[in-house]
Specification:
It contains 14 helices and 23 strands. The chain is an alpha+beta fold. A hairpin with a 2-residue loop joins strand 12 and strand 13. Bound molecules: glycyl-adenosine-5'-phosphate.
């Protein structure tokens, strides 16, 4: 029995081994290892044709629910490189570190905070039982240089957390957008960390993408807004997964809080890797604006237009990973189903239709019947202006359905001989494999209602 199978059994419900997702991702064009022809770079990945569609849908849906539908939230897009002082002020140069221990016997390396408690107490390697070294400290920030002339080049960093741009632009947003506290700023953007132990596919990477809300409040209203956004984000994740029981909150203990947080909760999702962080809800208080005021010399305090009270706003942060969402959604959606007819099993990605990379596949029943092909191509041409549509006439219809199931396409439209008589098509739904007849004229509306969020 493999380690993965054991874990699967221990949880009581079948969970998908990561290897199946890695294999599907490469085979069907979701995710590729970066620079693969040169042997790859650990912890860095590229997204293929289906991956980029899924990723864009995930991002757009987040933006829609966080920015577009909240009047007190606006968005920005900041740069990856900033002034190096930003990272001194943020505390990352000093505090953004991992403590690592090595096994003196088998030479394996572990993050100290990832060791099981028993091994930590006994200072023993979790793999071979050997003695562990004293912990050594490694900074996770990725360095880079601005300028070309030796001696005049300025060392700075690729941002270690995307949210810093929001604090840097906070005052500009305030002055240019008529926002008043309480209000929030959102951003989706890349972050870079020299993770010492990248791994588990997209779960821990060196280049990844984060989505952040930084919500600025009066200190007296902090608890209320913290509770509000904590619940809002939990419900958001619950709304896009099938296995609702695999989502939970976990409060951070005092010894694991990040240097900027006074309180934190993780929204965790359960996979074969166990319960793991998906998004962090952080009580950042006045840490960020106070530090940037202090290091930059700019006053970032806020004056209430009515009461004239002046204060440094406190911040509620909700910070999650686009890539971790991508991975968790695939793990949540993947299923291998026995075929009722006893033939090959069916692999299906039960992705929410809003997020599925391809919304519809248009299939002529037979490739060698010109009228079927022409009608199917016409339907596809109309649909592709509204949603991602694929035309497919290769192999028998059963195989084509399976191909679409495997990539999570919620609807297949089949053009058959009845279509030529009555201008209706068969719409086959992915999850239940049920089929209905829909008039060609009504097809765009029928599909749009089912694949577009509202
Ligand atoms: N601004 C706060 C912050 O960066 P974090 O808990 O370090 O907090 C937020 O990161 C989210 O970013 C995590 O919940 C996770 O989803 C994602 N994340 C963090 N490190 C990651 C990594 N190395 N690879 C992929 N995603 C990561």
């Amino acid at each position: 029995m493999t380690q993965t199978e054991e874990k699967t059994q221990a949880t009581g419900t079948p969970m998908v081994p990561i290897e199946k997702i890695v294999s599907l991702s490469k085979r069907r064009g979701f995710v590729y290892p970066n620079s693969e022809i040169y042997g790859g770079v650990s912890g860095i990945y590229d997204f293929g044709p289906l991956g980029v569609e899924l990723r864009n849908n995930i991002r757009r849906y987040w933006w829609w629910s966080m920015v577009q539908t909240n009047d007190n939230v606006v968005g920005i897009e900041g740069s990856i490189i900033t002034h190096p002082r930003v990272w001194e002020a943020s505390g990352h140069v000093e505090n953004f570190v991992d403590r690592l221990v090595d096994c003196k016997n088998c030479k394996r390396r572990f993050r100290q905070d990832h060791l099981p408690e028993e091994n930590l107490l006994k200072n023993k390697c979790p793999v071979c039982g050997g003695e562990l070294t004293e912990p050594r400290t490694f900074n996770l920030m990725m360095e880079t240089y601005i300028g070309v002339v030796e001696g005049e080049r300025m060392k700075t960093y690729l941002r270690g957390e995307a949210c810093q741009n929001i604090y840097l632009d906070y005052d500009n947003v305030l002055k240019s957008s008529r926002m008043q506290i309480p209000f929030g700023i959102c951003q989706i953007g890349k972050a870079f960390r020299n993770e010492v132990t990248p791994g588990n596919f997209l779960f821990r990477q060196r280049e990844f993408e984060q989505w952040d809300l930084q919500f600025f409040v009066h200190p007296g209203e902090m608890q209320q807004w913290f509770d509000y956004w904590k619940q809002f984000r939990f419900e958001w994740y619950k709304g896009i997964i099938n296995h609702k029981d695999r989502l939970r909150f976990r409060a951070h203990g005092p010894d694991e809080l990040a240097h900027y947080a006074k309180q934190a909760f993780d929204i965790e999702y359960q996979t074969v890797l166990g319960w793991q962080e998906w998004e962090g809800i952080h009580w950042r208080q006045d840490w960020d604006l106070s530090r940037h005021s202090q290091f930059s010399g700019q006053d970032l305090s806020y004056t209430d237009p009515e009461t004239k009270e002046r204060y440094i706003p406190w911040i509620v942060e909700t910070s999650g990973g686009v890539d971790r969402t991508f991975l968790n959604l695939l793990l949540d959606a993947y299923e291998e189903e026995p075929d009722p007819a006893g033939k090959e099993s069916r692999t299906v990605l039960r992705l929410h239709p809003w997020l599925a990379p391809v919304k519809v596949a248009v299939l002529p029943l037979q490739k060698n019947k010109e009228e079927l092909v022409t009608t199917a191509r016409d339907i596809h041409k109309k649909l592709r202006r509204l949603m991602v549509s694929q035309y497919d006439d290769i192999a028998n219809i059963g195989r084509r359905y399976r191909r679409q199931d495997e990539i999570g396409t919620p609807f297949c439209v089949t053009v058959d001989f009845q279509t030529l008589d009555d201008k209706t098509v068969t719409v086959r739904e992915r999850d239940g494999m049920t089929q209905v007849r829909v008039a060609i004229d009504e097809l765009p509306m029928y599909l749009q209602e089912r694949v577009t969020w509202k």
